[in-house]
Specification:
Largest sheet: 8 strands, mixed
CATH architecture of the largest domain: 2-Layer Sandwich
Order of helices and strands: EHEHEHEHEHEHEHHEEEEEEEEEHH
Oligomer: single chain
Radius of gyration: 21 Å
Number of domains: 2
Bound molecules: alpha-L-sorbopyranose
Low-confidence stretches: none
CATH class of the largest domain: Alpha Beta
Structural class: alpha/beta
Mean pLDDT: 95
Length: 392
Amino acid sequence: MTSAQPLRVGMVGYAFMGGAHSHAWRTAPRFFDLPLEPELKAVAGRDRNGVTAAAEKFGWASVETDWRRLIERDDIDLIDICTPGDTHAEIAVAALEAGKHVLCEKPLANSVAEAERMAQAAEAAFERGVYSMCGFTYRRTPALSLAKRMVDEGRLGTIRQVRAQYLQDWLSDENAPMTWRLDKTKSGSGSLGDIGAHIIDAAQWVTGQNITGVSALLETFVTERPLAGDRVGLGGHGDVTAEAPRGAVTVDDAAIFSARFANGPIGVFEATRFALGRKNAMRLELNGTRGSLAFDFEDMNVLSVYDDADSPDAGFRRILVTEPEHPYVGNWWPTGHGLGYEHGFTHQVVDLVDAIAGKRQPEPSFASALQVQRVLAAVESSAASSSRWQEV
Ligand code: SOE
């Protein structure tokens, strides 16, 4: 623990992401020497009982039932937005204009227009020394950070092809109940924005190239679902039964698209919650002129690398990304003792705090997240048009 100046945090929302962020704010200063000392000052949620229980569980010093109170309070320096996408723009713009730093969960917003408004507010705030970041945490998995380092060093040569998948299966049961992630007014889109956004950001970040065009298909396999009797998490089935009243699913269940990148590579992307047996398989493979790399979050401490300079029978090498010189790992455990999903959130806090103290733009910036939003919108637009689709 350091005697550094405090960074007083107010978090909005306290479900899955709220828990992951709370853990990160508490853990980061214990394993990394931070130039500012995060303080968990307040958590906001509409339900007083729920948010009070969350504050006790996750260690927040106070509660608010209206996020606007966090922005009014002068004992809060940063607003951490862990709510569904329909609230991101209003909260982030208000916080930035009030001079508070912002960490906003992905995707940045539910539309390009909202994301543009957020990016403009972030740019104006930056001039005033107020910083913002969007929570694409998979960048901060050591193996993906190592992949980025290798591509930047030219180890793969010129990138020719990108293969990205994000496969989950928590909705493959057609009686899995309705959640906010299936309501377009809350989530903006389905698997496309929720998990597709992650692989779009990761592919653009690791290659260093933006996607410039797409051709897409979206599908909704189950168009109605039981309305849950109580709050259910990912795949939680609550107390619903098949006879419960059903609500309309208004988002995609699966998204697949081809893409072209700025300097020539082509790519294929797939995001689905119906890949039965795949639980959180966020995957990225790059093929270059000198080598390839492959990552699968379900084996997140490993990066597979093929180097064309190796002997023909070398094949892909399996790098266990737990060496002290690998990104972030040196602050944790001895080699071979792997990290988990939560470490990406802790590394996100570390890099955000370092950037704020260093008066640098944290990455991914709202501008980077706006680019992801533009790709999401292009995928939806392409899927809605039949111009590129050839019947067989
Ligand atoms: C659900 O699909 C989800 O929780 C995403 O919303 C998260 O961003 C991802 O990290 C795990 O899966």
